[in-house]
Amino acid sequence: MVQGKIDEIHGWAAMGPGLEVEPWSYTPRPLGEHDVEIKIEHSGICGSDLHTIKEEWKGTMYPAIVGHEIVGRVITKGEKVLHLAEGDLVGVGAQVYGCLQGSCNACRRDLDPHCPEAVYTYNSTYADGQHAHGGYADAVRVHSNYAFKIPAGIDPVYAPPLMCAGVTVFAPMLRKGVKKGDRVGIVGIGGLGHLAIQYAHALGAEVVAFSHSPNKQKQCLELGANIFVNLANKDELDSVRGTLDYLFITSDSKANQYNDFITWMTFEGQIVVLALPEGQMSFGPREFVRTEVSITGSLIGGVNVLKKTLEFSAEHNILPIIERFPMAQINDALRHVNGGKALYRVVLDNIQN
Questions:
Q1: What residues does the Enoyl reductase (ER) domain cover (predicted)?
Q2: In this structure, are residues 70 and 135 in contact, taking their beta carbons and an 8 Å threshold?
């Protein structure tokens, strides 16, 4: 059996509910024959990280090293890993294991995040009972199926947000078949939304960006939006009612807004929820039934979709807008994101290690 090169992984862990993380180390699981050991160079901060360390979603297993937008170099691989080599630049997203068997109802449909054996990058447990820890660290070990080569056309520092935010918005667009001639709305122009604009534009759709921040109009148009709608402007909202084929909800919209969202859709329009609303979603059935609108959710993306996300991003030069912090300043970075000051994603640099 091949031995890993790192006996102890050093990271930044939440020790209890709150925003602060502190230095903490753990002994990684033995390197399996299908595993790779990755020296982390960059790690993105996702909103899910904050929800987890603050235990807003409940069930956090402390100490918890979060972070599921990971980019680094393979430094060791198991003897049965054939598609990766030491030195390869790879990314890891929100999942680190799925069975990927044809007999699995989820995996055979490229929905391996729903695999009964799925292990997520952090706050998750392997079959042997060991906890999974994420990218706020100097290294990570994962199954090689969930380590993805970063295409040569993507600068490594811009790759981390594609591993979660990118695939989160691109996966449902692929699944729904967004194409040229479709009219696609994007609600919330933040970490997810600014990427969603770029993907929808590259797929040939007419893109309508919705935001409460009129100062984002210029940037939305530069990213590929055809129309910008100020959510506080009734006339602008009225101008798009009944016109959208798809609507992607990428921000924590208030639950009572869904009644209004439905009126923006054309008949058989599809609303896709990517961010969790505050409270319970509520809408009256009349407009919902009259227009035959459907509302669905979407959870990240499987192995094949993540590969397509990276390939498509490289081909169409789709990159996140980021701010960078040294890993040593991680608590400053977390406060920056938590305070809503990030434009639009934050990436932690770990290359000095």
A1: 16-348
A2: yes
